[in-house]
Write a structure and sequence with these properties.
The chain is mainly α. Helices cover 74% and strands 0% of the residues.
């Protein structure tokens, strides 16, 4: 286990020593790959072999936002793209971006954009 953790840390330290930015970029890659799933900070930390607190602290310091805020923003941006470019229903779009409760998706979407998904789609 210690060897795996050491290898993971070494892989994340690039030749310029920009460790923190590498951690942030890795978090963003995981979100990009898994945003349509139920995704938590614990899931991300397990995939990266780091503690939740460690990646949370680095991500917040570098980006100025919490990881869950980033996931939400990412999902809403993907939803906006789909609402404008596809014929999928709002419920299907909600599920495709990781929200399995359409009412909750609509609430979050409206909080973030000021409009409902149906209004945005028009």
């Amino acid at each position: 286990m210690l060897i795996n953790i050491t290898v993971s840390v070494m892989e994340l330290i690039d030749s310029n020593g920009e460790y923190n930015y590498t951690v942030v970029n890795r978090v963003k890659e995981i979100v990009d790959k898994r945003y349509s799933e139920k995704l938590t900070v614990n899931d991300i930390s397990r995939e990266m072999n780091f503690s939740r607190q460690h990646i949370y602290r680095i991500f917040s310091r570098i980006t100025g936002m919490k990881i869950l805020e980033y996931i939400t923003e990412y999902r809403i941006e993907r939803a906006k793209e789909l609402l404008k470019s596809s014929t999928m229903s709002v419920g299907d779009i909600a599920r495709s971006v990781g929200y399995h409760d359409c009412d909750y998706f609509t609430k979050i979407f409206k909080e973030r954009t000021g409009t409902t998904p149906d209004e945005y789609k028009k």
